[in-house]
Design brief:
The chain is an alpha/beta fold. It has ten helices and 18 strands. The protein has helices at 14-25, 41-45, 55-63, 106-119, 221-229, 232-243, 290-307, 312-340, 347-361, 363-374; strands at residues 5-10, 33-36, 50-54, 72-74, 76-81, 87-91, 101-105, 124-125, 130-135, 140-144, 149-157, 169-186, 193-198, 203-209, 212-219, 250-253, 257-267, 273-275. A hairpin with a 2-residue loop joins strand 14 (203-209) and strand 15. It is elongated and about 65 Å long. The protein starts with a strand and ends with a helix. The relative contact order is 0.18.
Amino acid sequence: MTADFDIAICGAGPVGLALAASLVKRGTPAARIALIDAKPLDQTLQDPRSIALSYGSRQLLEEIDAWPTDVTAIHEIHVSRRGHFGRTLIERDEYGLPALGYVTRYGTLVASLAQAAERTGIAAIRPVEVQSITESSEAVELTLSDGRTITSAILVQAEGGVFSNQIAKSVHRAYEQTALVAHVVASAPVAHRAFERFTDEGPLALLPQNDGYAMVWCGRPATVAQLVALKDDAFLEALQQSFGTRVGRFTNVSARNSFPLGLNAHPVATLRTVAIGNAAQTLHPVAGQGLNLGLRDATVLARLLAQDAAAGKLLEFTKARQSDRSLTIQLTDTMARLFANAPDGAWSQTFLGWSLGIVDALRPAKRLLAEQMMYGRR
């Protein structure tokens, strides 16, 4: 049986697009790749969410000519625990880099990647949903919502969310936390400095972006619901109380949105199907590692499949990604559970405050943490 395609990619978000462009860059004919997405491209380009890209992700995106131009560089990352002594400050000069990471909008990144994929000759199939997947020893058959049926030697699931992935997971954990996202403006911003502030209920991150900060505030669902319902002035005061005055007074906030947090990890791959990015591991946003981990997935998988799009390569991929995935998941999950499952003032939360000061003083430990956040293992 000759399949219609060598590789079918379900999901044309950043990770799926990066995989497609990387495959062609490494020699896979564009005509042998099926890139399928349920959303029209215009709808995805309007997505205003802010995302953090590590310096390592910049390197990966530059390899496929997909680095977006509208980004805000992060030169420093300040990590602290509210109400406790100790903090860690990671600075770009310590590592000889132009930036530790960058902040951009989801739609901006997708636009850059879509243009890169288009230049390679890949024609995305959209908007169309995959209604069923049937795997045989020879190929994977996909039935699409427009009535078409296509076959592919390999299927890559690159589209997923917290609890909606198509491929089964062996780890599925809901945190008693919700994330609140918005854009805020402060009176005395610190240029190019990102903040990760651990509060009693979870991390509060401020990422420098344009004239202010992209904010991700994690807390218990009832607390976040109350914060969303507050009038702007009251919300800004609550934010001030939780964050402090390191960037002066908070003066403006955009529309606020919230979403539940959870962990999906360790997908069950088969000989002909594999998951990457959010379809493989949906992480808590603490440390902002989810998308960066997914881009590393795409790069490693492209490297292997461009050599030979054979079923055995998926087992090789799973083995190659085990270390990076496990370390990143353990890092984010441990920090998330310190707050999601511990009462206010628990010793584990206090210990985190102390450990930040210890990490800052121990340069080898600090370097290991920084390098994992910037590059991971690929």
